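Quick one: structure tokens for this chain, please?
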Amino acid sequence: MMKSLEPATIAFPTPIWCVGSYDSEEKPNVMTIAWGGICCSVPPCLTVSLRKATYTYGCIMEHKAYTVSIPSVKYLAEADYFGMASGKNVDKFAATGLTPVRSELVDAPYVGEFPVVFECRLIHTLEIGLHTQFVGEIVGIKADENVMGENGLPDMNKVETFTYDSTSKNYLAIGSPVEKGFNPGKRFMK
């Protein structure tokens, strides 16, 4: 039997993404978010949702760009810290020893040690209650050679990314493939 629950942000999995931006003095900033995803295929777009109260919100609004760096489990502590501290009060790159790298395509930095990076030019904002949804056109993607799959694209298992479960407040590693996509449903095709 299904149980009714109060409306809440308990959808899962949620990504662990680190959003890079510059502040008004060109200081690199990074923030971990869990509210985001691909939102369009043509043009390819990626969305992140932030509260106006965050330091990153103002940075993105000013520079009209952001990056999304995807950490591996190796950098779980750094990614966790990026979501707890404010760039208004501390240099998160200096605190963690990670490297801010200036994007050549957008006015935003990315985390040099993280294996996959999306470079996004801001094209839309949408006010949604407490959060603002930023829609960025993906103008570039970078991936470490060591995480590339046989198809020439990043392999999620090689990236060793992880997700956040808002119901248990745990980080979870991505597991093994269970089935090839667009295959098991073929049995229902007529």
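Helices lie at 55-63, 76-84, 92-96, 156-159.
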